[in-house]
Amino acid sequence: MSDVVVVYHSGYGHTRVMAEAVALGVERHVGSTCRLISVEDVNTQWERLHRADAIIFGAPTYMGSASASFKHFMEATSAFYLAQPWRDKLAAGFTNSGCLCGDKLNTLLQMAVFAAQHSMIWVGLDLLPARSSTGLFDGQLNRLGSSLGAMAQSNVEQSPDDAPPPEDRSTAAHLGERVARLAERLHHSPL
Length: 191
Ligand SMILES: Cc1cc2nc3c(=O)[nH]c(=O)nc-3n(C[C@H](O)[C@H](O)[C@H](O)COP(=O)(O)O)c2cc1C
Fold this sequence. Notes:
Oligomer: single chain
Bound molecules: flavin mononucleotide
Radius of gyration: 16 Å
Number of strands: 7
Distance between the termini: 16 Å
């Protein structure tokens, strides 16, 4: 029964697919709710964020770091940094890029440091890397072998209907479910 918010940016729709997959995963945990907020709409939603048990951040990787629109959101939170309203909330992150690597670990690192600035508790991905001897991953989670958060890769010539692939969407859902489960333990279980 945890209350999770996903704040994300997506320029061309591929990272939005990941955000939707995270939300599906959150809601797989019975009684948990998930609200998706695009960074374009966040200025009217700060109170909603302050109420959440957990906030999951999502951004495409542009030029080896979080997109400028997501960075704009990060900097906007400096308005309440001194009050620390996100202290002890859970935080997690996901990112998506065109290349298999694409330097997207840097985007997750940015998010984790940002969460630490707000005294949040970072939740990584509790999945071993997928293994393949053929290049096909057949539905395995964590295709890209990430630990800090959920990674996705979207071929740039494919639409968000087709990219990122199902393995990456399922990995995002797994992260959402994990955050919802841990948020319930942290915020809604008797000590
Ligand atoms: C300005 C810009 C910079 C990009 N930089 C990178 C990059 O550094 N590494 C990479 O692998 N892909 C890069 N890409 C590709 C995007 O990460 C990829 O197309 C992603 O799916 C876009 O997500 P979106 O549809 O949610 O915007 C870049 C795309 C744009 C538009």
